[in-house]
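can u do me a favor
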């Protein structure tokens, strides 16, 4: 044996709590960097907001704020991962043209050349706000599950089913308490629990992650081949209800159209299985769909799903990513709000660097630190 060779430090054992896109991306990049990773998820992978989101990706739509670098880095990582994972086939990755429109029963149909033919309803054209170079989409549930499958098969990530009930920081590491009396230990833990982050008693006094409920429907038109890859950011002006309302339309490669509505802050239920849609909100989305396009009128579609998800949000509308003050080895990654699917890869890669290397270089995480809430 060469006496000059130094023994390798064994890879860190890291526990990631949460099987949404942030938790799975973090587990993937941790394991890719050599850590031994255990992922704990209480229900199923991408069962909450990560599986119900529109999954719209935009290079430039955060450029006027502090999250620009995070968005741009993550948009690029999404592109790289799509090539690596054959995303166009495995999870519906594709570029989009993105338009803004106004919608209302009293609006006269527009004949604007920038509108695709299937947008033939009471719509007033806004402008092109994204091109195939700057906007894209994925199926978020499929992306999260495909990425985790690679993390398991190629990098040895272990998946444990259980509800996380608490975290104990000890001198030699951290211990995650799981329902039923189980424990999972490691050198560090990353809490990526979305809107359920503040359900942990250790975190509820340190910062606030609240939930905003968003409704969504997926409609399958009879003439699905006519629906081109044009995302629509709409402003709907109802004739009676208070408004306006801002629904978004995202056609998918599977010949269906995902539509989501405005968000409203709600109490966080015990678990994702307790989140259910409100019938009035679903009816509103389906009504607006028929106003936007004859292809999406009730008699011309079948309804594939009617759901609701709860986005994790913060009081300053920025994610929380960093080590928790006074809890060495305990990290949090939550509060990504509307852009959680876009931010997933860069957040995961940055958290992996922070945990294993002591600092993130792919994205500067200082402005997202949980210590910013300390008075």
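np, heres the sequence
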């Amino acid at each position: 044996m060469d006496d000059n060779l130094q023994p390798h430090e064994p890879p860190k054992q890291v526990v990631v709590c949460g099987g949404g896109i942030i938790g799975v991306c973090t587990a993937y990049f941790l394991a890719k960097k050599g850590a031994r990773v255990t992922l704990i998820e209480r229900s199923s992978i991408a069962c909450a907001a990560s599986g119900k989101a529109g999954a719209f990706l935009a290079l430039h739509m955060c450029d006027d704020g502090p999250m620009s670098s995070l968005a741009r880095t993550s948009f690029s990582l999404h592109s790289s991962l799509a090539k690596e994972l054959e995303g166009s086939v495995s999870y519906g990755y594709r570029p989009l043209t993105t338009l803004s429109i106004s919608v209302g029963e009293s609006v006269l149909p527009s004949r604007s050349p920038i509108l695709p033919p299937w947008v033939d309803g009471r719509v007033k054209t806004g402008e092109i706000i994204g091109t195939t170079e700057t906007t894209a989409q994925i199926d978020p549930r499929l992306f999260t599950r495909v990425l985790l499958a690679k993390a398991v098969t190629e990098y040895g990530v272990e998946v444990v089913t259980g509800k996380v009930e608490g975290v104990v920081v000890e001198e030699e590491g951290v211990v995650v308490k799981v329902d039923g009396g189980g424990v999972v230990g490691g050198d560090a833990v990353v809490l990526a629990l979305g809107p359920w982050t503040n359900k942990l008693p250790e975190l509820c006094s340190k910062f606030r992650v609240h939930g905003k409920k968003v409704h969504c429907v997926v409609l399958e038109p009879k003439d699905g081949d006519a629906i081109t890859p044009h995302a629509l950011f709409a402003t709907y002006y109802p004739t009676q209800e208070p408004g306006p309302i801002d629904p978004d339309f995202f056609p998918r490669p599977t010949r269906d159209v995902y539509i989501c509505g405005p968000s409203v802050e709600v109490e966080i239920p015990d678990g994702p299985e307790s989140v259910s849609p409100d019938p009035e909100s679903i009816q509103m989305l389906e009504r607006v769909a028929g106003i936007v396009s004859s292809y999406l009128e009730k008699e011309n579609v079948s309804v594939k799903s009617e759901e609701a998800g709860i986005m994790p949000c913060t009081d300053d509308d920025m994610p929380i990513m960093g080590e928790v003050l006074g809890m060495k080895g305990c990290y949090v990654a939550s509060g990504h709000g509307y852009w959680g699917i876009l931010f997933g890869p860069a957040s995961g890669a940055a958290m992996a660097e922070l945990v294993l290397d002591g600092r993130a270089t792919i994205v500067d995480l200082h402005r997202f630190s949980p210590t910013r809430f300390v008075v």
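Residues 13-83+138-205+316-373 form a domain with the FAD/NAD(P)-binding domain fold (CATH 3.50.50.60). hope that helps!!
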